[in-house]
Structures are given as C-alpha cells and as structure tokens.
Amino acid sequence: MTLSTQPTSAVSLRRLLPDAKILGAEDIVVRSCAANSKLCLPDELFVAMVGAHEDGHDYVEEAIANGASAILSERALPTNVPVCIVENSHSAYAKICQALAGDPSKRMRVIGVTGTNGKTTVCRLIQSIMETAGATVGMSSSLGYDNGYDRQPWDCDTPSAAILADLLSRMEYNGCTHAVIEASSEALSRDRLDGIELDAVAITNLRNDHLDVHGSVANYHRAKKKILGRLRETGFAVVNADDAACSKLLSQIDTPALSVALHGAAEITASVVERHKSEQTFLLSAGDETVPVCTRMIGDHHVYNCLVAAAVGLVYGVDLKTVVRGLERVESIPGRMQRIECGQPFGVFVDQADTPDALAMALKSLRRVTHGRVICVFGSDGHDDMSKRPLLGRVAERGADLSLITSSAISGRGSLEVIHDVLDGYERPAKAHVMPDRTAAIEWALSEAQTGDTVLIAGRGAPNLQSLREEELPLDDVAIAQTWLYREQPEAEVEDDGPVLLKFPRG
C-alpha cells in the first residue's frame, strides 16, 4: 500500500497546526502529501519523519526532485521550497491525513481498543454486538479490515496514518455508523491515531510486553495511555479492574469510565458456571440484570474480552439480551484459541500465544478442561525480545505435560540459536523435545496425543506467509493440523470429556 494520501480537499497548515513555524511562505495549502520521498508526486507536501532505521530528513532533496512543493519537518532545512517546522512530524502527518480525508471520525462513533492481549478478539466482539443491535460497523484489526463493503486480510495491527485515514473515509462513505480500531503500542507511540476523535476507548490489560521496542515498562504503559488523549470530551473508557496496571490507570482517567471484572468488584462482572473443550458458560451481570452467556471460545481471558465488549455495547444503549446474542455469534476467531475438530478423540487448539503471559493463559485454560495430558508445540520467530525466550520455556515446562520446541518458520532454518535461548528457561532441559521443522513438530505432537489429551499449537496463530528459497509458502498451523488429522484418523469418533462444573464464587 502507498504512504501517500489522495487529494480530497485543501488543508491549511497554518490553521491545522497553529503551533507550527512556517518558513518561506505565509501559509502552506496541502491537497495531498507523502511520507516516502520515492512516492512523492508533483505539488505534494513531503513529510520528513524519523523512523526506527531511517531519517526522512535525509531524503528531502529526493522528494523535491520528484516534485514536492513544500516540506514538513522537525527542524529547519536549507531548501528553496516552503518548510513547515513542527515538534512532532508523526503527529502532524496523522492530523494532515485525517484532514485530507475529511475528518471522518467526526461523523462516526470510533472505538479504540488497546491492551497487551485480547485486542483483536475484543474488536470483533464489539463489532458483532453493535451489528446485532442494527448498526453498520467497520473494523481495523490485526486480522484485516472491514470497511462496510468488503473485508480483506492484512499483516499489521494498526496501519499507517494514511491508510487509516483512507479506511475511515471509506467506512463513512459505505454508511458505517461505528468503527472499531485496534491500536497497538507501536502505533500509539508513533502517533498514528492523532487527528482521530475517539468516542470510546477499551483497555483489555497492561502487561510487560514489547520492551524491545519501548525500552522499559514505563514507556510501554505510557504509550498505551496516549490513547486516552484521543477521546472526545463526551467519550468514555472501559477498563479491566482485575488487571493491576489498568486498575491504577482507572484512577487517572478524567473522562467517564466503566470497569469490568471476573474476580473483583466492578460495574460489570461475570462468574463462570461450566467449561469443557467445546464451549463455556458464564453469568454476565450488569446492574440488577444477570444473564447466561454460552460461547464456543473458552478460557478466563475470553470472559474478560466478552466483559469489555459488553460494557461498550451497554454504554451505547444496547440491551443486555442483544449484547449476549452478539457475543454468542462469534464462535471462533482465527488463531485465537481456535479449536480444530476433525473427528479426533483429543482436543486440538491453535493459538497465537507468542509471549510468556499469553502462553501461560492458554495452557491454564486448557488444563482446566483436560482430563489427560496437555501437549504444547511452541516456538519463537527470532525477531522478538530475546529476554522472553527463556520465559517461554519456563511457562511451557510448568504448564504442559509434554512440550515440544520448534521454529516459527516453515523451514526451521536459523532457529537453533532461538531454540537454545528457549531451552535456557527449563529447569530440566532434558524434558524438552526439540524439532526445528514446524510441520514435523505439529504432526509428531498429534501422533503422540491420546484420548482425553489436548494439543496446543502456539506461537503463530492465524495463517501466515514465510519465505523459503525465494518462494512464499503458506505457513498455516490450522491447515497442517487438519491435513494430518484427516489423513491419519478418517474414521475416528469424537469423544467428549463432558463438562467441568465450577463452584459459584461466594461473598
């Protein structure tokens, strides 16, 4: 996708960015802009931004040679075209993109969802609730986008500011009344959501994550907190009160806020009634009303996701029964505790869990509904925070009866160093099984499973593409598992372990 916006209207930088300093002109009127010097077209504004590996200020001359008529930068530049100097070019670029798109967020109810885990699921649940209530809802998440007319997959959590502006504009054009946006910490730290007026913010949880990008826990939490600055004055926030960091944040929120909890006190709560591998039932309580919710997705973490989504729907005036119907309509989400059913006498789940916290939650959820062994296939992609790798090993050793370390790449090439890092987290490394070839590892784990066992295939989740010998080959854990199961067990019968009854909490 291009990083340049299509001209939809004229935008005055003097009016849009009143604190900016303009050199070489009284004002700069923008009809289109670009953040990539190679894509810059005649009479466009070139926005120079400092990236992780490159500085856009170094490519100003190339942009001018390609026809840029003005420059937006964070410092004065020796050029013969007007220059607009701002403190933060990332933020300015996002605001310009939204203005050129006609500021669509001013005419829709835009809901921002952030947190360490559960963002994508909460986005889909909110969309389902509001659609069940009769609204037309667009969505942008790590699984792809829905602009109200068509749905397409992509490979990012939050797109660039230009793409996000174009997407919101298309949602408005297609009649969307609401839009749900997944906001990653990287997108928030790079101010991609600036210029968007959020009507609601949902924060699922805040754990120690992405330290390789943000440098410290404080910086990571600070990036997440920036989403609250995008709330309009009449907006509201939904926060997980059971999460320590979120609970602390709750006391700092100036706008109206609603809390949810599974174990503590909150405005909206839940209590689990029963669970088994194919579904779980919990009671959802809001005010004086309590209704049962039966969902095909299992685990406490999914109950939290449902609570957050339900809170958003309730604030928008959706009645509780409609909220429940919306929650129950979402039977599965690709790569999020996705159950594979091919007639096998044991459970098979595919989950994205690529962090110690997410892997621990997945293993804990499956342990509660498994009468036999829990077998875990997991790995690291080699591009993550190296400090996480030993923690992944520690979690797998403690949470699974049989753990198999593999690569997250289809070839297994270059993964031995990563596997060695994961093994460092084991107290008894001899208990670990190592098989770098991911396909072979998945098939071996399935062949080891017996009646009553559960196999968790973790670390990749939704379908992906990996490069192997200059070719793009599909790396899909679901397809690998299904192919083996249908081939090896064509006549196997499903054997349900039966529900696991849970006691109601007291007090």
Compose a concise summary of this entry:
This protein is of the alpha/beta class and 507 residues long. 31% of the residues lie in helices and 24% in strands. Keywords: ATP-binding, Cell cycle, Cell division, Cell shape, Cell wall biogenesis/degradation, Cytoplasm, Ligase, Nucleotide-binding, Peptidoglycan synthesis.
Helix count, DSSP H or I runs of 4 or more residues: 16
End-to-end distance = 54 Å
The poorly predicted ranges are 1-7, 410-414, 464-472, 503-507
Largest sheet, in brief, is:
12 strands, mixed
Helix proportion range = 25-40%
Number of strands: 27
Shape: globular
Pathway: Cell wall biogenesis; peptidoglycan biosynthesis
InterPro entries: Folylpolyglutamate_synth_CS, Mur-like_cat_sf, Mur_ligase_C, Mur_ligase_C_dom_sf, Mur_ligase_cen, Mur_ligase_N, MurE/MurF_N, UDP-N-AcMur-Glu-dNH2Pim_ligase
EC number: 6.3.2.13
Domain Mur ligase C-terminal: 335-461
Describe this structure in words.
Residues 36-85 form the Mur ligase N-terminal catalytic domain. It is found in: Cytoplasm. It comes from Blastopirellula sediminis. Belongs to the MurCDEF family. MurE subfamily. The chain is of the alpha/beta class and 507 residues long. Helices cover 31% and strands 24% of the residues. The protein has 16 helices and 27 strands. Strands 8, 9, 10, 11, 12, 13, 14, 15, 16, 17, 18 and 27 form a twelve-stranded mixed sheet that branches. Strands 19-20-24-21-22-23 form a six-stranded mixed sheet, with helices on both faces. α3 packs parallel to α5 (161-173). The longest helix is centred in the middle third of the chain and has 16 residues, at 300-315. Mean pLDDT is 87; it is low at 1-7, 410-414, 464-472 and 503-507.
